[in-house]
Design brief:
The chain is mostly helical. Helices cover 62% and strands 2% of the residues.
Length: 479
């Protein structure tokens, strides 16, 4: 455990220290795309944060290779080299995309090639456990297809959720922490050496995210870009593939007794089939909903829009930081809940705890929809939005209502008066523009420059191209 913690700390330190120089490099090379209508930041922010994360990955693997208790992973398995090869390829494509915006098919092909490189070097799914049956061996073609599919889905799921400052790095850090606990238990608790590479991958992934988060929290000074989001997605998928494909369930000697007993006993082995999806349950759900939504609207599944889960949180009324924390909460609840259930599957209290925390999460999620009023004795201790409104006498209330009605009538009649005045002076009114003339948005000019940019993702999807439009009306918004 000390060696894993040392590897994690070194990875985090290298990533953190290199992010500052990488930021200056990104500014010098012009890797600062202009602000789009769906971006949350108000000024151009450099990308290429994945460069620091990749060198953190290399530093973590180098340190682990020189530690006495971890160098056996490199001697007995070729998986660390397979991970480094696939990560280098996907990272290079991500860097080029952050700078030159590659085509969607090129990125998809690169993701498949990176997965194929890992398969060629032994990082693949060889068998899967089936409840009541045992271990089912896969053919070479089946294992390759399943491995490539898992890598591509995980990469794009992580990339889809990269929409708010610190969101993707924080959620992947939470997922890798849960996966580390699971893989470490498989290796240390059951004595299975094949789980050691996945444990190392999870520790290094945590270090990459922890080192990058201080620079990426709101307001972010640098974005990880596709070079970072695709990289951490690939490392996360590699750990899941390593446990699922290399750990032999028969080595645990749990397929004994009745079918029901064997199924309950084998639950910790079946979890690898679900854990890769549960730890990215939120990004995966966002990915599926985005594809369905865009296909339903007749758009490309990879066309960026403003319908992601984090967009919905912002539209409900949550702030930027609160939206990120809510996503953290649900990711941690799902990931750690599944890991806890895999350890104590016979304890129903875990289910009740998860259900109770889910209820708390729903209340926090819907909190902006209602404004509870504090009791009179607590008026001076709560923010103004939670205080009760002062009630005046009836005459004063009626007077206020009459004033509000007069003001509303004046506001309604103002546009018509302005059009009439414009017609009298010979100037074209707003409703009488020339054919083909584009009307200017309300508050154009100097006031429009002060309008904050609508919320949106800070990076394109892993398969989609970025929009260069800065007009909010051209953004794919549901508003």
């Amino acid at each position: 455990m000390r060696d894993y913690l040392l590897t994690l700390c070194v990875t985090a330190a290298v990533t953190y220290l290199l992010t500052g120089p990488v930021r200056k490099f990104a500014i010098a090379t012009g890797a600062m795309p202009e602000i789009r209508a769906r971006d949350v930041h108000r000024e151009p922010t450099p990308r290429l944060g994945g460069i620091a994360m990749f060198f953190g990955l290399c530093a973590g693997l180098l340190v682990a290779d020189n530690l006495q208790n971890l160098n056996g992973v490199f001697e007995l398995s070729n998986e660390p080299r397979a991970l480094l090869s696939g990560a280098a390829l996907i990272w290079l494509i991500g860097v080029l995309d952050d700078k030159f915006e590659l085509d969607a098919l090129i990125k998809l092909g690169a993701q498949m090639i990176a997965a194929g490189v890992m398969v060629m070097q032994g990082l693949t799914i060889l068998w899967i456990p089936v409840p009541g049956v045992g271990t089912v061996s896969l053919t070479s073609g089946q294992g390759t297809l399943l491995t490539v599919a898992l890598v591509v889905i995980t990469i794009n799921a992580v990339n889809f959720v990269d929409g708010l400052d610190g969101l993707a790095a924080g959620m992947v850090c939470i997922a890798s922490a849960a996966f580390f606990l699971y893989a470490y238990r498989m290796w240390y608790g059951y004595g299975i050496e094949a789980a050691a590479p996945a444990t190392l991958f999870a520790a290094i992934l945590m270090g990459m995210c922890v080192g990058f988060l201080p620079h990426n929290m709101h307001p972010a000074r640098i974005f990880m870009g596709d070079s970072g989001s695709m990289l951490i997605g690939l490392v996360l998928a590699a750990g899941a593939i390593s446990v699922t494909g290399q750990v032999d369930p028969d080595a645990l000697k749990i397929f004994e007794g009745s079918t029901r007993q064997a199924t309950h006993a084998a639950l910790p082995v079946f979890i690898p089939l679900l854990l890769p999806l549960t730890i990215i349950a939120i990004p995966f759900t966002d990915l599926v909903l985005a594809v369905v939504r865009r296909a339903w609207n007749g758009k490309s599944p990879f066309a960026a829009d403003r319908g992601h889960l984090h967009h919905r949180l912002l539209e409900i009324g949550h702030s930027h930081s609160r939206s990120v924390l809510i996503m953290y909460f649900w990711s941690a609840l799902i990931a750690f809940g599944v890991v806890a259930y895999s350890v104590h599957s016979a304890s129903m209290w875990i289910v009740f705890v998860v259900l109770g925390l889910s209820a708390v999460g729903l209340v926090l999620l819907l909190l902006p929809r209602f404004t509870p009023r504090a009791p009179l004795w607590a008026q001076s201790f709560v923010p103004p939005r939670y205080r009760r409104r002062d009630r005046g006498d009836g005459a004063k209330g009626r007077e206020g209502q009459e004033e509000a009605a007069v003001q509303e009538a004046a506001d309604t009649a103002a546009p018509a008066t302005d059009d009439a005045a414009a017609e009298a002076s010979g100037a074209p009114s707003e409703g009488a523009r020339e054919p083909g003339e584009t009307p200017e948005p309300a508050g154009a000019g100097e006031a429009c420059d002060r309008t904050p940019v609508p919320a949106g993702v800070n990076g394109a999807t892993a398969l989609g191209a970025r929009s260069r439009s800065t007009d909010p009306r051209k953004a794919g918004s549901r508003r």
